[in-house]
Design a protein that fits this description.
Elements lengths: L2 E4 L4 H10 L7 E4 L5 H17 L5 E6 L1 E2 L2 E4 L3 E5 L1 H11 L4 E5 L6 E13 L5 E12 L11 E6 L9 H11 L5 E12 L4 E10 L4
Helix pairs in contact: 2-3
């Protein structure tokens, strides 16, 4: 099933917000649906540079569609694409969907999931406390956001000291971004993303869907 969600900003703009806030985002290239030839050429040059530096690096394509603030999710997520297969697949998929090509390695994921903060305010509008919910999975290999099967709730000022440091880092980093949104993340076993850190934030979504 394909779900839709109403978003004010398109996904690429939301990822840029994460980047501007100092959060580590994936090495990625955005292609709108029916991308122009110069944009396609730039995407393949971007991938070629990564391949030249790291010949074993695989690629992934996250897809979605977008029209009049209605954004699809749960469309196909292509993973483990070899460089030599990337161009043909992108040219085919991009005829139907917007593509987010990333150069991260799913097998390196150890924790992954969503985090949500909710601010509890006084009658005067003062923030009294912030509660969080983490939905996550922990795996020896290939932890991915969509596989979350555990959840933890708590208050930002009373974070459980016994939590794995990976989850504490997610809480700390995510709490400095905007609240009342769903923030997707993965903790990799080795540094990844634009800033080459273990924690990568993929994107955020609003909490209202239909």
């Amino acid at each position: 099933m394909v779900w839709t969600n109403r978003e004010i900003h398109e996904k690429i703009e939301r990822i840029q917000e994460l980047k501007e806030a100092g959060l580590n985002t994936p090495r990625m290239f955005y292609l709108k649906k029916f991308a122009d030839p110069p944009d396609l050429e730039e995407a393949f040059e971007w991938a070629a540079k990564i391949h030249w530096r790291s010949p074993d690096q695989i690629f992934n394509i996250r897809t979605y569609d977008y029209s009049k603030e209605i954004e699809t999710s749960q469309t196909t997520h292509y993973t483990d694409i070899k460089f030599e297969d990337l161009e043909k697949l992108v040219l085919d998929v991009n005829l139907k969907l917007t593509c987010m090509i990333d150069a991260e390695t799913p097998d390196n994921g150890r924790f992954a999931g969503n985090i949500i903060f909710e601010d509890i305010k006084s009658p005067t509008g003062r923030i009294m406390t912030s509660k969080f919910i983490i939905e996550y999975c922990e795996k020896e290999i290939r932890a991915m956001v969509r596989d979350h099967n555990k959840h933890i709730t708590g208050e930002l000022k009373l974070v459980n000291k016994d939590l794995p440091f990976q989850l504490k880092t997610v809480i700390d980093k995510a709490s400095k971004f905007k609240h009342d949104i769903i923030l997707e993340w993965t903790w990799f076993r080795v540094p990844a993303g634009e800033l080459q850190q273990n924690l990568v934030f993929w994107e955020y979504r609003n909490m209202g869907g239909k």
